[in-house]
């Protein structure tokens, strides 16, 4: 499930569909949701899937994290993490990998995303769910092509299990895959 179907989210999700992965989009913009549905994609509104039907193996957070007046606004990623925790709590209890693709300061994935998912799901990081940071390297005008033909894939992983599961998804791409810690991946994206 791609949470936040903006430029990055749509490019990522549409490439996954092309490669044969069952992929859904979930977002707060009704026009984008309708457009994705008209294009033949599975798309949900922000208030959907709080009924126990959230049954995905991986959630990718591609929500905006803008800098406003010199401050990084993390409200969207915090809100998306809270909502994900609530959805996981009600859905089937199976191992799930949470992947942060949004540009975030080092520490955000572990200190905000993981903590909010734990708090609102009752699940435990490393036991019930995994966590990765997977920065994207896209140009806005060629986002789809850049997603389809990445020059490199970086997986910042909480633990080996999280990284292994995410790497399985990316094995269809013909480029180097590197793994590191989550904070290293967050820092590298900012650089």
Q: How would you characterize the overall build of this protein?
A:
This protein is an alpha/beta fold and 191 residues long. Helix content is 40%, strand content 20%. The chain is built from 7 helices and 10 strands. It has an 8-stranded mixed β-sheet with strand order 3-2-1-4-7-8-9-10, sandwiched between helices. The protein has a two-stranded antiparallel sheet with strand order 5-6. Strand 9 (153-157), helix 6 and strand 10 form a beta-alpha-beta unit. The chain is globular.
- Percent of sequence in beta strands: 15-25%
- Kindly name the structural category: alpha/beta
How many beta-strand elements?
Answer: 10
- Average the pLDDT over all residues and give the rounded result: 95
User: How many helical elements?
Assistant: 7
> What about the largest sheet?
8 strands, mixed
How much helicity do the residues have?
A: 40-55%
Inertia-based shape: globular
How large is the radius of gyration?
A: 15 Å
- Output the strand order for the largest sheet: 3-2-1-4-7-8-9-10
Order of helices and strands: EHEHEEEEHEHEHEHEH
